[in-house]
Write a structure and sequence with these properties.
By secondary structure, this protein is α/β, with parallel strands linked by helices. Helix content is 27%, strand content 15%.
Length: 471
């Protein structure tokens, strides 16, 4: 990854004071503009919605009550605030909205643009400033030294500037393809001179990680980002054989982030191959085809003779996952931008379906086009009909020889206690072997005892104690 920047550093770090991923200070004068209450009102009126749910990220919750009250006064109906999302704030929490029978969600702040299936959604994206003059100057220098199509990608925080960026880069339009954010009910725009929309199509050729464009094989990619962007790293992984540039970003930092992420994935693939017990960690109940991803992971585990259990525990943290020490690796089924904070604090590695495919599916290779979006993995690289024996090899972690085994050969207790709708599965054999299995209700086994009056008062001097005399 190379640097794509010629603008001074002081212009790189400027950000808007409106909705962004950092803590912001929004005054009364620009409150309506930052939260775009006019757009919210039009969205509600157009859809004739009666129960609206507002979803805020943690850094904007301080403004949630004020925004809800002002919107209620505009539409003359009650508005609900989703105060705590079940999984990640970048995903639309349709499940929480359905708890109050909501019929629409207005999502504030950064989003992964993962498609939803249940409710209509309005996205109010963050807004970051950008030195457009520096972008044009850097692009002019870069454009003269490259050949072939150039694909322009960007974080969602720059979506409000894309029309102006398109005008500024008009002199390069012969080879520039400007991607479009996949926003529900968004107006389609031509991405370049060779866009399929010019030929009467109603869609772009390629859809990847919440962006769409018409360019099958770009010669180079320019990604506009204003911070550490997980989406940028995901695109860089998907386009490893293409020149990938970022603007604005320090070369060393961008290269270090990508190399560290790539080395980490190599390590995780080896951990999956060594593991005999895998846990499928449900990290979303809203993203389209998440049940298909769970089913695909079950097939991969069965194919390689590994035990597999399903867990749905909301937002994962080290304490929750530490309750299942028998699970050697957790596979997180979530949106592409969901990352675990303090990953080193976890007892077991937490991987994505991409690493699981690379480790367990013989038809998947590093040379293939890789994607961290599990919806892309569901469409390609099917498992062979007949199980291929795993050629003996040496683990790069334990230095032991790995051989192929089946679930029947790997010990007892291989059955799962399945629950409907993939809510959770429990490792019966492991739980039964524990000396402590948590709190047990033991219904009907506890003898009935007489109710007694408990202690009253304060710890300093309970009512049944002698009067306390301070010295």
């Amino acid at each position: 990854m190379d640097l794509f920047s010629s603008c001074p550093e002081e212009t790189i770090n400027r950000k808007s004071t409106c909705i962004s991923n950092e803590f912001v200070s929004i005054s009364d004068s620009n409150f309506d503009e930052c939260f775009d209450l006019d757009k919210c009102q039009q969205f509600i009126k157009k859809g004739n919605f009666t129960k609206i749910c507002l979803q805020f990220p943690d850094n904007l919750l301080q403004y949630s009550v004020k925004a809800a009250l002002q919107l209620e006064s505009r539409i003359n109906q009650k508005v609900f605030v989703l105060g705590d999302t079940s999984y990640g704030s970048c995903c639309v929490d349709e499940v929480a909205a359905q708890h109050v029978d909501g019929d629409a969600v207005i999502h504030m702040g950064h989003t992964c643009l993962s498609p939803t299936t249940r409710l209509p959604v309005l996205h109010l994206l963050p807004r970051a400033s950008l030195d457009l003059s520096g972008l044009v100057s850097a692009f002019a220098h870069f454009y003269s030294t490259t050949n072939g199509p150039v694909l322009l990608l960007y974080d969602v925080a720059y979506g409000h500037l894309i029309d102006e960026i398109r005008e500024r880069l008009d002199e390069f339009k012969e080879r520039v393809v400007i991607s479009q954010l996949n926003i529900p009910d968004g107006q389609l725009q031509a991405c370049g001179l060779e866009c399929d929309l010019h030929r009467g199509s109603n869609t772009h050729q390629t859809t990847l990680l919440g962006r769409s464009y018409c360019c099958q094989s770009p010669s180079s990619v320019v990604y506009i980002t204003h911070r550490h962007s997980q989406n940028m790293l995901n695109f860089a992984l998907s386009m490893r054989n293409i020149q990938f540039f970022t603007y604005p970003r320090e070369t060393e930092k961008a290269t270090e982030d990508f190399n560290k992420s790539f080395r980490r994935r190599l390590y995780l693939v080896e951990k999956i191959k060594d593991a005999k017990t895998l846990g499928i960690l449900v990290g979303t109940l809203s993203v389209e085809k998440y049940l298909g991803a769970i089913e695909k992971m079950k097939k991969l585990a069965t194919y390689r003779g590994k035990r597999c259990y399903i867990f749905s525990i909301g937002k994962p943290n080290p304490a929750k996952l530490a309750n299942f020490p028998e699970v050697e690796v957790f596979v997180l089924v979530s949106c592409p931008e969901s990352i675990l904070e303090n990953e080193k604090d976890y007892m077991q590695p937490v991987v994505t379906l991409l690493e699981a495919e690379l480790a367990l599916n013989p038809s998947m290779h590093w040379d293939d086009q890789l994607s961290v979006d599990f919806r892309d993995l569901l469409e390609g690289n099917p498992l062979p009909e007949n199980q291929e024996p795993l050629a003996p090899d040496v683990s790069l972690i334990s230095n032991k020889i790995r051989t192929d085994v089946t679930i029947e050969d790997s010990g007892t207790g291989s059955e799962l206690a399945n629950r409907e709708h993939y809510q959770i599965s429990v490792a019966n054999s492991y739980i039964a072997g524990r000396s402590w299995r948590g709190l047990e209700q033991a219904l009907g086994e506890t003898p009935v005892s007489q109710v007694k009056v408990g202690r009253a008062g304060i710890p300093l001097a309970y009512d049944d104690e002698k009067s306390y005399q301070p010295s």
